[in-house]
Amino acid sequence: MFPDFEYLKPRNLKEALQPLGELGERCRLLAGGTALLVDVRDGHVSPELLVDIGELDVLRFIKVDGEIMRVGAATTLMEIEESPLLQKEASFLVAAASSVGGPQIRNRATIGGNLLYASPGADMAPPLLALGATLRLVSLKGERQVPIEEFFVGPRRTICRADELLTEVSFPIGKAGRGAFIKLGLRNAMAISVGSVAVYLEIDPSTSIVQEARISLGALAPTPIRIKTLEDMLRGERASAPLIKEVAEAAKRQVHPRSSSIRSSPEYRKAVAGALVQKALEQAILSD
Amino acid sequence: MSLEVKPTTRLIDVLRDDLGLTGTKEGCGKGDCGACTVLLDGIAVNSCLVLAVQADKKEVTTVEGLGSPDELHPLQEAFLRNGAVQCGYCTPGVLLSAKTLLDRNPKPTREQIAVAISGNLCRCTGYKQIIDAVADVAQVIGAERAAN
């Protein structure tokens, strides 16, 4: 049994937005519930009302729209894992989804919930940062499109206002980029990230010159982040083993993990960052 | 079946307390151990992290729906045959994770079986016997299909 709250299952987006506008933070969106219900149980949050958006069809889709992939915010991590479309267009996003929890968690947890919960180690964030994703935030007053880079502002904090609802995650596809996601947990199953890295590279096949590079880290800073200094080291250069090594060395100096050591110390996380960046770059460059 | 529930009641509470279906066990109560696994419209979920109201108009399968003492489900027989039950606390949840796997993929690899039960903690068996048991059933089902 949970502490007291009321429950609303809206039939459409407007019915979901109404209480958000009126109650603000006294109202919480419930999607998969794998994080929120634990927080409610433990008394970390005490909402008056839970608005269950988990079954709103308008928030559950995976579709290609021209050169853009669109994923509804209430799409479950299992739906992402099993999507042939995403396996083809963003296999490293799929890898990140399947690294979360166990099947029972992935059957409920959603991509939107993972981002909004905004754990520094949110596993969906690094690949979406590397993909250059855009988030669509909707409220009764209107909507805005936000680059995911601007979304996270601190541990468990985002720019999403209490009256706003994240409806969609989208990212460009079709550039023949290569991606990789590597996560270090304390074990394989049910493990929360000690550190994770996603890389996205576009490489000219005839010259091996890196044309575009995006590198992002999870659990290695107060928020998931892109490290542009590392990206600059790659862009315009020929992909090679020495270059990978150089970027991996630089990665150790570029991370600033939280001093409060949850799951591992900052020193360990810095060392891990270099190893993860190296492995991810190798995987992205060698994967064909 | 129709029941009126409070918004704050969890699915596991309705199953165990209101319906007396105590085969579903509560372990951690926060989605880490999988002891409370049930199938919701055929999909494995932790019933400690599902509100009872969220099961409205859905089919819930608990271990009681698998087999009876007189007529065991093939998975239950295989668990006995392979020594996959020790203290038994995780067993109902593991059985349901295995069932949903076999319903979707009748001939899983050992790796796929391991992934399917990765959300179910077992502190007795070391998992080997459980994987053996599920693989055992997968083979029986495969052989029956081949015979037909």
Task: Write up this protein.
- The complex is a heterodimer of chains A (288) and B (148).
- Chain A is built from eleven helices and 14 strands.
- Chain A has helices at 13-23, 36-41, 77-81, 84-89, 91-98, 103-106, 111-117, 125-130, 228-234, 241-254, 266-286, and strands spanning 6-8, 27-30, 49-52, 62-65, 68-72, 134-139, 142-147, 152-154, 157-158, 165-172, 178-184, 195-203, 210-218, 225-226.
- Chain B starts with 10 loop residues before the first helix and ends with a helix.
- The longest helix of chain B has 20 residues, at 128-147.
- Chain B contains five helices and three strands.
- Chain A binds chain B through residues 1-7, 9, 30, 33-34, 37-38, 41-42, 50, 52, 54, 78, 101-105, 107-108, 188-190, and chain B through 7-10, 13, 29-32, 34, 37, 43-46, 49-51, 53-54, 97, 100, 115-116, 118-121.
Care to give the gist of this entry?
The complex is a heterodimer of chains A (288) and B (148). Chain A has helices spanning 13-23, 36-41, 77-81, 84-89, 91-98, 103-106, 111-117, 125-130, 228-234, 241-254, 266-286; strands at residues 6-8, 27-30, 49-52, 62-65, 68-72, 134-139, 142-147, 152-154, 157-158, 165-172, 178-184, 195-203, 210-218, 225-226.
Question: What topology does this entry show?
Answer:
The complex is a heterodimer of chains A (288) and B (148).
Chain A: E1 6-8, H1 13-23, E2 27-30, H2 36-41, E3 49-52, E4 62-65, E5 68-72, H3 77-81, H4 84-89, H5 91-98, H6 103-106, H7 111-117, H8 125-130, E6 134-139, E7 142-147, E8 152-154, E9 157-158, E10 165-172, E11 178-184, E12 195-203, E13 210-218, E14 225-226, H9 228-234, H10 241-254, H11 266-286
Parallel strand pairs in A: 1-3, 2-3
Antiparallel strand pairs in A: 4-5, 5-10, 6-7, 6-10, 8-9, 11-12, 12-13, 13-14
Helix pairs in contact in A: 9-10, 10-11
Chain B: H1 11-18, E1 37-40, E2 43-46, E3 60-61, H2 74-81, H3 91-104, H4 110-116, H5 128-147
Antiparallel strand pairs in B: 1-2, 1-3
Helix pairs in contact in B: 2-5
